[in-house]
């Protein structure tokens, strides 16, 4: 019997990862996943819609890159599907009536939520137009970017005040942004898998200023060998291209055109003929501060102890260790750019008790009153749930359901209750019950529920 063919190019189950090995199931399940959503699709405008697409591209591969929103979709719809899909973060973009662009970063299913106002932003296409040699469209998006955060916490010399962000909120914001991507291990993470950098820099706060502003940048990491002239690098790149492909026609970066030259030495020396060009004489932009030593990953012949001790006379290993080369690291911006100013922090998913507000500052007595108010709401909600559970039990007993059926129904209800936080059913349910209590309708409803 013939062996069944396994598709390896389009199916997830194939071993088509960067290293040729399948990703472990537990590692894929534990990695953070995000959804970048437009709230009010079709009403935010084309610029914000393109910004959402660019942010999705930046958050790849752990995001829904081809998510389609509808006008009828609400926040509750996305939160309901976040659990089964394993989504841990929501990035919600919206536009207010005054034209301000807002972004909310929430952790599912119970929060907290960070509210930001997008003061300035630049799309990827605008960043590419501004660059002389743009980069993108390659294999950079197969792995998550490296997250770099700067100046997120205030120095201990600054004293806390009512207008400034408290220390515990600074650590909370740091933890939320750190959880966007999987943590890396310097011992096990291969350097070749780090292709991009997402930089978050907090602007230093002014005196007596309680603003919390972040600048977001997205870069691609490029490297090139140092100490080698530009013509020689082009020849090496062309040789690799010819060896890796059957035909190099129509490909950029092929063999240079030497038809107008009498000898290849003229190409290596240069038009002026003053001598062999190096990085210093060819005018190439190489930053010596960004030079690093990279160990070669290609296979090498295993030498005996006698061969290793024997000094080499051919001069191939002169000027450095075996298999180690110096490379210059350069960052090329990919976009998008965003300037985010934090305005509010809430406990739940886009609802709940306000932990911090940029414009509204409350005294300790007002904070205590708010805590009592939220505690009262929580107790009333628990009482309503208890009455509803008792009512369901009475109906089950009246229908004559067995113990096994009751147990299955209880498990289903527990799953629903886990997602019944302040950002799901509690959002509309609490408002409706408060209105009924004000009109005095809840007492009649409570008597009907108790009566069965």
Automatic annotation (TrEMBL):
GO annotation terms (biological process): ribosomal large subunit assembly; rRNA processing
Single annotated GO MF: rRNA binding
Comp. bias (Acidic residues): 408-452
GO CC terms of this entry: preribosome, large subunit precursor
Annotated ranges, domain Brix: 34-351
Compositionally biased spans, kind Basic and acidic residues: 306-322, 372-395
Positions of region (Disordered): 1-31, 303-322, 372-452
Comp. bias (Basic residues): 1-11
Protein name: Ribosome biogenesis protein-like protein Ssf2
Source organism (scientific name): Hyaloscypha bicolor E
